[in-house]
Amino acid sequence: MVDTPASPAASASPSAVPGAQAIARAAHLLRLVTSAGDGGAGVGDLAREAGLTRPTAHRLLSALRVEGLVDRDDASGHWLPGPELFLMGSVAASRFDITAIARDIVRSLAVRTEESAFLSVRRGDETVCLVREDGSFPIRSFVLSEGVRFPLGVASAGLAILAFLPPEDVDAYLERHPELSEKWGASHAPARLRSRIADTKARGYAVNPGLIVEGSWGVGAAVFTRTGDPQWALSLTGVEFRFGGERLAELGRILLAHAHQLSTRIAAR
């Protein structure tokens, strides 16, 4: 396994290469299908999220199905990840996957805090949840689960990663995504997001005070490659009353200790 930089695909222009637009659309649909959860998603929802007409989305999904990259549940009509994705993922895991060395750390984080704990990875301008471990506290937040994607700076994991990128990369990211405040609320306008980035750097970990779902809080800490790039993040989510005052500071200390442990393991590979 090797450390790898985040893909620049999200910022590349699909018109730069002939035929790339169709590939970009198909790849976007694949990402949406894999992040839809166990029940999959209907073609109408996928078309809307991808910014495509329903016939275009259906045509692309049908082509991906022929290749085994997606599948369709005949009962519900929902589209699901296909068997070829599993085979491809198995091959790619030897290069990109750190879940084998991270899973016990995520589990320890859930046990120590009693909250739901997660490992997420940066992919381009997004984070993708790789591992979820539920804690023992009976009231849980279900904002995040395996395969769910968020733009950088939205969930606590993505805010932690964004905060420790070089300033010029942060500037470029915000220029690429002026839609963040419209889609995710006024707290994601550039000035307010920059303020949260500064707070995260000063504190060492990110705090999301119910900005995605009211009452559901999260904290996140960046995990670094051996060269110091924030490529992953550990995070915790739970209900608001569990994330206040001294307990928030204690959760942050525990989270940072586990993130440091994982960064050390990655550097030693």
Automatic annotation (TrEMBL):
Occurrences of domain HTH iclR-type (ranges): 20-83
Example GO biological process: negative regulation of DNA-templated transcription
Keyword terms: DNA-binding, Transcription, Transcription regulation
Pfam families reported for this sequence: HTH_IclR, IclR_C
Molecular function as annotated in GO: DNA binding; DNA-binding transcription factor activity
Keyword Acyltransferase: no
DNA-binding recorded as keyword: yes
SUPFAM superfamilies in UniProt: GAF domain-like (SSF55781), Winged helix' DNA-binding domain (SSF46785)
Record Gene3D superfamilies: 3.30.450.40, Winged helix-like DNA-binding domain superfamily/Winged helix DNA-binding domain
Protein name per its UniProtKB record: IclR family transcriptional regulator
Organism of provenance: Microbacterium testaceum
